[in-house]
Amino acid sequence: MLTLFGYGITTKAIAKKFGNCRIFDDKFSAVTSDADGNEFLASELFNPQKSHLEVTSPGIAPTHQLIRKAENLVSEYDLFASTMPYSIWVSGTNGKTTTTDMIGHLLKKRGAVTGGNIGTPLASIDENATMWVLETSSFTLHYTNIAVPNLYVLLPITPDHIDWHGDFKAYEEAKLKPLKLMQEGEVVILPQKYKDVPTNAMKLTYENSADLAKHFDIDINKIYFKEPFLTDALLALGVSKILFDEIDYDLINSYEIGRHRVEEFVDQKGRLWINDSKATNADATIAALKSHLDQKVHLILGGDDKDAELEELFRLMTKFDVKVYAIGKNMQRVIDLCDEKKILCYPCQNLRNAVLKIDKNHDKSSIAILSPAAASLDQFSSYAQRGDDFIKFVKNLS
Q1: Are 115 and 89 in contact (CB under 8 A)?
Q2: CA dihedral sign of residues 101, 250, 208, 213
Q3: Phi, psi of 356, rounded to the nearest 5 degrees
Q4: Which of 45, 273, 314, 379 has the fewest CB atoms within 10 Å, i.e. is most exposed?
Q5: Residue 296: exposure state from Cβ atoms within 10 A (0-12, 13-18, ≥19)
Q6: Phi and psi at residue 42, in whole multiples of 5°?
Q7: Rg for the chain, CA atoms, rounded
Q8: Helix (H, G, I), strand (E, B), or coil: what is residue 112?
């Protein structure tokens, strides 16, 4: 009988696929079961002597009692290592969802399917597909010791999920872990910073978009995307070049960027607003701001930053004509950092107040952007709800 830790998207799919699983979760109190023979038990009831294999939900931290007790722990990726077709893993801090989706868009005609952290758990992916393109989180990589990618695409690594990993070094090591397991004949595309990390795989390193374009002989002028999506597009085209010696400009340009990531829209007064709610860390906000160096910017910042490093973001903002509208759990921290850098900041408490305040200052020559550099769960159910509410508040302006 397979043992599962946590009852989330990953383990629900595994339980549905295999049945007869024992599932331990903090939210269970009474022992119950379902029609597929799965048993649901409280975490404290787990006995490692009665389990031969444990698969954890990736979000469960290493400090949890279930992880500490486990003696045969594997990741979701390890569970499917023996049946996984040719696989392309995409990781890094920002841009991995878009890059994964772009690769899937380019390789769909080759029989590729996307999954992993992008939304479809491995237990629900078509095992007969030609290849899997998987968005891979640091949580999953931390627990993975068997499965390896055939092609690993690594975007830049900046501080994130420090509360889960303990420190940036551990987070960075999780992202780099596949390199130690990869073998000759496999390929890794990674930032120049990590060129000396040992691996048996073939390394292709890059510093920026220009490096990628030069290495893969791609004409940037034929690509419609601007940063941060230009790098994502170049990485996706690079994968297509490596596997099939193909650069399809029309196909990559037909890709549509997903919701809540630098999503532009115009209000009733013809003013530009940008929904970048998916920017849950400082690096993502920096990437969004760099496209607007010469404009007046009204920036909504704040939420649950999990005590992440924000110094680089605020140092960059001193180069902008920017007004900050602070919201959420870390509002006072945002205010204090703005005071320190002499950046004008309005305490707004919540998103609706921020939109109303911006409405008084915004005009057709400026931009207003929600790019919070923080997670959303202090005031919202998800970054998607935060983005949807932002658009709703703007559209309700009279």
Answers
A1: no
A2: positive
A3: -65, -40
A4: 45
A5: middle
A6: -70, 150
A7: 22
A8: strand
383-395 vs 351-361: helix crossing angle, rounded to 10:
40
**What is the number of other CB atoms lying within 10 angstroms of the CB of residue 254?**
10
Given a contact cutoff of 8 angstroms between Cβ atoms, the answer to whether 208 and 192 are in contact is no
CB contact at 8 A, 300 and 275: no
Structure tokens at 95: 């841009």
Which residues contact residue 270 at a Cβ distance below 8 angstroms, ignoring those fewer than 6 apart?
364
Q: Which of the four pLDDT bands, split at 50, 70 and 90, describes residue 203? A: very high
Residue 154's nearest CA partner among 131, 130, 136, 142 is 136
Q: Which tens digits make up the pLDDT trace of 332-363?
A: 999 999 999 999 999 999 999 999 999 999 99
List, for residues 41-55, the tens digit of each pLDDT value.
999 999 999 999 999
pTM confidence score: 0.78
Token pair listed for 103: 């690769």
DSSP of 246-313 = ---HHHHHT--PPTTSSEEEE-TTS-EEEE-TT--SHHHHHHHHGGGTTSEEEEEE-SB-TT---HHH
